[in-house]
Amino acid sequence: MSTRYKLTIAYDGSAYSGWQRQPDPVATVQRVVEKAAGEIVNHPVTVAGASRTDAGVHANGQVAQMDATTHIEPGRLRLAINSRLPPDVLIRQLEPVSPEFDVSRAVRKRYRYLIWADRDRPVFHRSFVYHFWPGLAVEPMREACRLFEGAHDFAAFQGRGDDRVTTTRTIFHCDIHRRGPLVMFSVEGSGFLYHMVRNMVGTVLEVGRGHWPAARVTEILQAGENGECGPCAPAGGLCLQWIRFPDAAAPGR
Fold first, then answer.
1. Which of 24, 73, 143, 252 is 20 to 30 A away from residue 66, measured at CA?
2. Distance from first CA to last CA of the chain, Å, rounded?
3. Which of 66, 88, 105 is the endpoint of a domain?
4. Residue 61 — φ and ψ, nearest 5°?
């Protein structure tokens, strides 16, 4: 009998063309997880993710589901699959859930973007931060972040090629703070468009370096025109931290 499993996955996305499976020989996180899981349960599996992270984007809490037929208990199954995964991908948690659990029903996601704001390059964190050396004023950036909060049409922050029907999203929380050279942008929302978070970061950086006032965020949102926002920040600084689901996502057995 098949069981549905909920997987929480961490990965360094540097070597991958995003989460979503693509034709061979393109390396994606979904492909390597499906291969490893299929080898352990001895049948092909589909591992569907809750968020299609872009090429080079990382995750600490990507959530996925898979249906598998196996007598291996969940704790041992997680360890067995991890033993077949490359060093830059790890299943942090694996649990059986109700057959009705569906990763497409996520209600809240959190992303974090890290900026290394220092003249010297970040030797030990270079794969996970955007090295941005022009001076930044954090308070105007924080003001700009708050203007993203609420329900807005984010068409102006949508990456080219995004085929989503609606561009309205709700941002529950958006903030930025600094610890030494590290500037941390965080955003929680109901969902995100292609390149949306990276375009938000690029816009906030334009505010921080004094090119735009914070109020420019509202003007861009209201204009709704693609290309009006700041430059798209590089993928390496972005990490999917966690995803939340309705109560029905609780373990079912």
1. 24
2. 14
3. 105
4. -145, 45
